[in-house]
Amino acid sequence: MLKRWILDFAYYLDTSKSYQKRKRFFYNILENDKNKYKKYVDYFMMTLIFISVSVLIREVKFHVNDYLMFFSNYIISIIFLIEYLLRFWVNSSISKIIVARAEHDTFLHRDVNLYKAFKEIARVKLLYMLSPKAIIDLLAIMPFFHELRLLRVFILFRVFKLFRYAKSFQTLSSVLASKKFEFLTLGIFASVVIFVSSVLIYVMEGNNPNSPINTLYEAIYWSIVTISTVGYGDITPVSHEGRFVAMLVITAGIAVLAFTTSLFVSAFTEKLDEIKETKTIEDVSKLKRFYLICGYEQVAKEVAKKLYANGNDIIVLDGDLERFEAAKKDGYIALNYNPGSVESYSKLNIHMDKQVKSILCLREDDIENVYSALTIRSFNKEVPILSLLMSDANRKKLNFAGINNIVYPQELVGLITKELIGKPVAFEVIHELRSENTEVSIDELGITQRIVDNFTIVKELGNKDFRVVLLGIYKHKSDRFYFNPLDDTILEVGDYLLVVGYQIFILEFEKYLHTKVRNV
Amino acid sequence: MSKRTALIFGYNKYAHEIVTNLKDKYEYIKIFTLDEKEVDNAIVEIELFDLSDEWTEIHKDVDVENSMAFCVLEDNAQNIFLTISLRANFKDLRIIAIASNEESANKLKMAGANKVIPLVETTSDIIANMLEKPISNKILHSILYEESDLKIAQIKISNKSRFKDEQLMSIDWTRYNGIIVLSVMHEDMRGDFIYSSRAKHHIIQEGDILVVVGYEEDIKAFEKKIGSERYVNWSHWSW
Q1: Is the pLDDT of residue B235 over 60?
Q2: Contacts of A305 in chain B (CB under 8 A)
Q3: Is the ipTM of this complex over 0.85?
Q4: How far A160 CA sits from the closest chain B CA (Å)?
Q5: What is the CATH number of domain B5-124?
Q6: CB B122 within 8 A of CB B98
């Protein structure tokens, strides 16, 4: 009967949307680094840690306000206890383990063995409880029993809790963890030297009435102070034998120090690129909208410069180290990833449809561009892709790869020369309008609800007063461009005004459109 | 007898595109190459040239003043040397050259090219416009490359023109007969946007060129009304 209840309850929890939603919420704010609220929880916890450590320091010589003591000893401890229990809860799912066991046994036509399920639950939960982070969490709750004076020092464990909240600490520990074997070897070597030298110095000096070393504890203390090259000088050997041991320990100490330093340096050097890459990916995931440039060659350089100047964020992907370095040097967020590999995009951890304005395949090589475009299309059909075309014979292949816009520089040269011959002055005018570096430019002004509320027809716009030429209106509904629109043309939300003028006047005009309030 | 000719130096994809776009505009198109093998394998008639040529044949056959040279060699140094060599021999020849980067574009201008097309710059301008201003890019592209009925034209103010001696700003250009006047080129060949302060006080004179946008019929009607007509003259085009 009890078994039935347990199974029913486990199935209920496993399928309950509200329960899972709550559990996911707590998991996200406690464990998911990508969750936007987690950092606030982390800041809150860090503040609590600093408060309790400050109270501990103050308490050494001064009286601390009773309320503050109460807050530090009880409230903070209770908050930490709640945090510990929540982490314990979200770390693994009891109901899932029971359900999985039930499914497994039912499939094999056996009686459901709850004992095995509980054993698994105990194993998983114990594994969590014995993890260093969970132990520190538990010890940090201990000051709750502050009447036990010894337990007060456990407040210091709260400082260790900072490891959990500050990312740089985690980076540091992951760097050091990569050299686990080397540090273990160093530790064993240092321990052996300390042990042997402590015993030796104790044997040599223990019975000497002039020697300050009277106990094995003092011998170990002397050994550690000497091997670490600190050498306080409060305890020094007096006999010749003792001084000989000291010389050996000092020599070993230099080796230990050199070894430790080189280990730290090499661990950081090896991990530096990885750390930087992780930071870059984090930065990218925070960006709202950006252009993703695949391949950083000459055209890409210029395009990136122009888009960046317009206030856009640019991300460059290039598998070639030299080009990747060039992009970084030019000040863009760059990753040394191959744009032709799906793994590169999954590592980037971005939302293609929401974050990417457009993907630009700008390698000066059609094969590479097609390869990158196909890679992107294999997991996303919607994101707009623009590509350079270097040989007209490959145009069909680029179309087939799902590229939305193709730019063929050779064709541009042909068209430009034709225009130059026929209408040189007109060509120059259009070229000037298109160029970013001239004062007079063409711009698109989107019609918003606010504009429509204040300006219903073209005549009311008053663009002439701002020395702005209204070239036409692009009507969103009919997807048509109306050149030189009539005065009574109605403005609708989603339309675009195509205007020509000095940039400064266009800006003034745009500002006017957005801020003017109709006179009633 | 000398003929109006398009001289294309370099047998490559650029040359191919230029030929496709210019074949109706010139009596003759001559393609030159530095590579002897290309002369044998080419599907069109091409001639061999040397960078140290004295260009005697061109002197003889080509109406230099009304011809155009296109320097499209892919090697920047060779293209610059070719340009300087042509300019040294033909003072009045109009030279258009392509440059792969800004640095060689400047050198080509110094070497005497009338117009330099900086490939990277132009391509990136087009790409940036396609992404940032898709509507204006589409409209300008269709106006410039005549993919729509909307056209851009240059109209020269003649002696009989209605607007002659009138102040530029006193005329409501923006609403005039369905056309839009974008800019005016003065006698000194400096172009001014219609709303610029320079243009504001300008008195329209004979020889000024108006750059207008409009539908073909409206442009024709405008020409008729103001008593001026469309105008293309390379000699007025300088940098």
Answers
A1: no
A2: 124
A3: no
A4: 50
A5: 3.40.50.720
A6: no
